[in-house]
Specification:
heterodimer; A: mainly alpha; 10 helices; 76% helix; 0% strand; flat; disordered N terminus; B: alpha/beta; 9 strands
Chain lengths: 279, 262
């Protein structure tokens, strides 16, 4: 019968990179190097003291010298960030599933999720830190509050965006609620959930850092934000920059990891993970 | 009138079926219709004549506001509902993008609790029957429009339903692909003789495929003609180009014009 050829998968694989790919990496890198060079030059020529503005070379050297202390702090911040993200992802998903099952539950709980989201975390953090004895748990809660909403709201939309004809088809075959959820709604929600996770990864880090700032020197936990505060008090500005650099790098790394996870999970079927040849 | 022996105990019988939507629109009014076992019937009419609504009511996807839809030969399940054994093909292929062709065709069996390996075997056979052997692992986005529709037909037939309901399945395809799918569908039907109700707005397609054409008129949707096409099967390209085919198309076309003027 049929011999129609399949549409060739518009997904060419390159061992190296295309000219476009190299440009994408090299252009921003060049801009960065130029900016750093200009910064170093300006600091040296004007003889700016390092307690006002250290040059990039000094920041880098400080990072290497203080790596032992800083890496411990980085570990603590990462722990809080990932714990918060894990709790946000699982609770967000669970609550979204609950919302999808019952309109009443969604209507009664969603406004509170919004309230939690719109209240600035800096304003609630002191309360949480007072109420919760364990400082780590307090930090975790703060980071969770910030990271939770994008996952909840995205997944809720995703669960409700299942194809109507497919829903009819499932009904036609007498599918149970559970079958509709696991075989249709959850896979439909997957791209939305992953997009939420990508946003929440960065937010969890921000939440953790903000909470550490609020907790300040009072806590036994000493994450990167604590190092920044400490360095500020001691006028060790190069160290402050080094800690700041670590925070940014961590944020970028989290974003890249989330993008990779999303790509791996969706690459075989979802438009967002497809590379297309440009016409 | 069509062959009446099969209509003494039809597969499905509609009596005074009416559908009024919540906004007050009367989509279908007073439809009496009996579909015999193994018949190939087309529902033909202009858009808005309620042919899709009628099909969805037969499928049980929407309820009739008045009248009854009976399945006289059907067994009844534990809750007293008739076991209708339906395959449904939508206008779009309606495939799950995250599953391969085999996974999509397996769906009805898996929902019914058929073990995975048996479901896979039966799904592979259904795919082969629509000419897609070798495409089991292909994701929908890697398939052409015609191939996606074949997967959709394989999925509808994998449960060996007693009735296949098709809602303008080939309307979005190009003519060459449509002709080919028409031929392949007829070939499958001649082999398996599942009852088929085929919704279309094409006179040519309905005459080519069906034993019987139900012509519907709009506002409100109702049946105005019931035309038998008695030409024998198999109907190939020679039928499509015959004077007999042209004559039948003329009759049906006139009936449709009347329906649209009514």
């Amino acid at each position: 019968m049929s011999n129609e050829p399949p549409i060739p998968n518009a997904d060419p694989r390159f061992l190296g990179l295309t000219a476009d790919g190299w440009g994408r990496i090299l252009a921003p890198l060049l801009v960065g190097l130029l900016a750093l060079g200009a910064w170093e030059y300006a600091v040296r020529v004007n003889e700016v003291p390092s307690y006002i503005l250290p040059g990039p070379v000094e920041v880098w050297n400080t990072l290497l010298r203080d790596w032992h202390t800083l890496s411990v702090s980085l570990g603590i911040t990462l722990q809080i960030t990932f714990a918060a993200l894990a709790v946000a992802a699982s609770l967000g998903l669970l609550l979204a599933v609950l919302f999808a099952q019952s309109r009443v539950v969604e209507l009664s709980l969603f406004p509170y999720a919004v309230i939690l989201q719109v209240t600035p975390i800096v304003a609630i953090a002191p309360l949480i830190i007072i109420w919760v004895d364990d400082i780590r748990i307090a930090l975790l809660i703060c980071a969770w509050i910030v990271a939770f909403f994008p996952i909840l709201s995205n997944t809720t939309i995703g669960l409700n965006s299942a194809d109507h004809n497919l829903l009819d088809l499932f009904r036609l075959y007498g599918a149970t609620r559970w079958q509709v959820l696991t075989r249709l709604r959850l896979p439909s929600a997957m791209p939305f959930f992953l997009a939420g996770l990508k946003i929440s990864g960065g937010l969890a880090l921000i939440g953790a850092i903000v909470a550490e700032f609020v907790a300040g020197t009072g806590g036994s936990a000493s994450g990167l934000a604590y190092r920044i505060l400490e360095a500020g008090y001691q006028l060790q500005i190069p160290r402050m920059f080094a800690a700041l650099l670590l925070v940014s790098m961590t944020g970028i790394a989290i974003f890249l990891v989330m993008t990779l996870i999303s790509h791996l999970a969706l690459r075989s079927w979802h438009e967002s993970a497809m590379s297309r040849e440009k016409g | 009138m069509p062959d009446t022996t099969s209509l003494i105990r039809p597969l499905v019988a509609l009596t005074g079926v009416e559908k009024r939507y919540r906004n007050g629109t009367l989509a279908v009014r007073g439809v009496d219709l009996a579909i015999g076992q193994g018949e190939f019937v087309s529902l033909l009419g202009p858009s808005g004549c309620g042919k899709s609504t009628l099909l969805r009511m037969i499928a049980g996807l929407i309820d009739a506001s008045a009248g009854t839809i009976d399945w006289p030969n059907a067994m009844h399940d534990a809750r007293g509902r008739p076991e209708r054994s339906i395959g449904f093909v939508f206008q779009e292929p309606t495939l799950m993008p995250w599953a391969g062709a085999l996974g999509n065709v397996m769906l009805p069996l898996r929902l019914a609790g058929v073990p995975k390996s048996e479901a896979a075997d039966r799904a592979a056979a259904a795919l082969a029957a629509v000419g897609l052997a070798g495409f089991e692992k292909a994701y929908p986005r890697a398939l052409s429009g015609g191939m996606k529709m074949r997967v959709s037909i394989a999925r509808a037939l994998v449960t060996k339903p007693r009735i296949l309901l098709m809602d303008e399945p080939f309307a979005a395809l190009d003519e060459i692909t449509r002709f080919k799918l028409n031929n392949d569908l007829l070939e499958l039907w001649e082999r398996e003789r599942f009852t088929t109700i085929f919704v279309t707005h094409s006179v040519f397609e309905s005459v080519y495929l069906s034993q019987r054409i139900i012509v519907m008129a709009a506002r409100p949707g109702r049946v105005v003609h019931d035309i038998a096409i008695e030409d024998p099967y198999p109907r190939g390209e020679s039928f499509r180009t015959s004077a007999e085919y042209a004559a039948q198309c003329r009759i049906v076309s006139r009936a449709l014009s009347e329906a649209m003027a009514a």
